[in-house]
Design a protein that fits this description.
With 171 residues, this protein is mainly alpha-helical. Helices cover 39% and strands 8% of the residues. It is built from six helices and four strands; from the N terminus they run H-E-E-H-H-E-E-H-H-H. The chain has helices at 2-15, 66-70, 74-87, 129-145, 150-160, 164-168; strands at residues 21-22, 25-26, 98-102, 118-122. The termini are far apart. 30% of the residues are buried.
Length: 171
């Protein structure tokens, strides 16, 4: 809903001449990128898939290939990524430089289509989308091995993915 509202707001402000566009891209940041590599929690709070619970992890997230069954298509995520680049006010507007990432990853039962769980995570910087992917896998493996609970893994990654392994005691 946030991105839909932001899109309507950008369009309305543009029509009124209250924002300017550079190379066809509206400059109307509504989210902060000051906390990178973390998203702005007011724009991207994270969300859980209610169909994934501790009691069914061995028939959902712990099954090889399960995330492919719930991953939204790029036809859904690319427009969100484009709007998110505007929302976050990134100066680099090249979509290839970002992953439309789930804050709570699908590997841990993150909500696949919740806009509050998706954000354009940069591939550049000291801790990037690539770095987060490794954290996600380690947490999922620990959940599936019974080393930590699904709830602990979700909470840790949602709060701060850069410290999630240390917080959960597996890193």
């Amino acid at each position: 809903m946030r991105r839909f509202t932001a899109t309507i707001s950008v369009l309305a402000l543009g029509a009124a001449g209250l924002i300017t566009a550079t190379a066809g891209t509206a400059q109307a940041a509504t989210c902060s990128h000051a906390r990178l590599p973390l998203p702005d929690s007011s724009c991207t709070p994270g969300a859980y898939n209610p169909d994934v619970t501790q009691s069914n992890i061995h028939s959902t997230i712990c099954v090889s290939g399960w995330t492919a069954t719930v991953r939204p298509p790029t036809s859904y995520t690319n427009p969100l990524k484009a709007q998110g680049i505007i929302d976050y006010g990134y100066s680099d507007t090249n979509m290839a430089d970002y992953e439309e990432d789930h804050l709570v990853p699908l590997e841990l039962g993150g909500a696949p289509r919740a806009t509050g769980n998706l954000w354009p995570e940069p591939y550049s910087g000291s801790q990037t989308a690539y770095s987060k992917d490794g954290v996600e896998t380690k947490l999922k493996n620990a959940v599936c091995a019974g080393t930590i609970t699904l709830s602990a893994a979700r909470s840790a990654i949602k709060s701060n993915w850069t410290t999630a392994l240390q917080v959960t005691g597996i890193g």
